[in-house]
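[job 4471] stage=fold_predict status=RUNNING
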Amino acid sequence: LLILTIGRISFAKYASEIKQDTFDIEFIAGNIKLSLTETDNEFVIVPGKTITKDTKVTVEAMSEDCFVFVKINKSNEFNDFMEYEVASEWKELAENTDIYYCESPRTLVDKEIYLFKDNQIVVKETVTKGAYEELNESITLNFTAYAVQKTLEIDNATDAWNFINSSDNLS
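[job 4471] inference complete, writing structure tokens
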């Protein structure tokens, strides 16, 4: 995904997508430039331990007014082992969706938006070694970041998310 099909987007609507497994790759669409990064750390599961998790979306300089979204995908057992709070800059798009958004005005400098409150996740006190060893999969958190330029037609987060999910808008 590098750019949208301009012929189908006659109202200068733009969207871009970045996946966690390609942190260093930036996708540009229209006048919005995003990056999704975090410090590469090895995480150790210790009951009650706080783990530094500095995942952030950067809306880069000269990007237009936009809605920025982050979709969090958790492994099935994640909530049994860990918990987190999303930073206050983010609003939940709809209850229990793990999709969060914020608005970013046109910016002349890079704007960093951290995902987690205090840049941390916490291993629950109730985690036991036995429960961890019984897992059939790894405990994972994956992120996808999106941005949609604000326009006269896209002036709220719900419309922006619907635009992202329209199969004609992301290639």
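[job 4471] summary: Confidence is low (pLDDT under 50) at residues 1-29.
[job 4471] exit 0
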